[in-house]
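Lab manual, section 2.4: Encoding a predicted structure.

Procedure: take the sequence of the chain (172 residues), apply the prediction step described in section 2.3, and record the output as structure tokens. A sample record is shown.
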Amino acid sequence: MIRLGGRSLTLTIALATLAADQTSKVIVVRSLAPGLAVPVLPGLFDFTLVTNAGGIFGILRDADGPLRGVLFAAIPVVAIVLMGWYAWRLRDAQAWPRAALGLIVGGAAGNLADRLRLGYVIDFLDAYFGTHHWPAFNLADSAICAGVTLLLAEGIFTREADDRAPLPGPPS
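Recorded output:
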């Protein structure tokens, strides 16, 4: 039996998240016509293939120029590097933060892969209530939100601050 712990936990979750995100997008692109809603929970949730050339929730989607492309590629790269560095510094026993960081890194990598390959992100999860729609999203976005929520919950509910050892220095 394979036991995941420490850095391998973060890496495994990141790679599984990236694979699930990219696989789901391939399936959706092959199965759905752009803009056509396929009801899953009528009145609440559909599968709808849309593209997002902007940032989170479509921010700056109408901006022109090379700066937009550089910005939308650089921000995820910086986030991935920072989250990876943070995960590297965690103690092996800190499984929840490691899992959370794996979700965030995998989600950021999934959306970055779309941007680099296509110039936009594929979204297909459409949550709404009546005429009130949440911006369409994908598994990568969901993983990022779940990872951030896990990090916040771990920070809020972990009370034994003196039980934590100092962070190790950089690897030599």
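Check your result against the sample. The beta strands are 37-41, 45-52, 121-129, 132-133.
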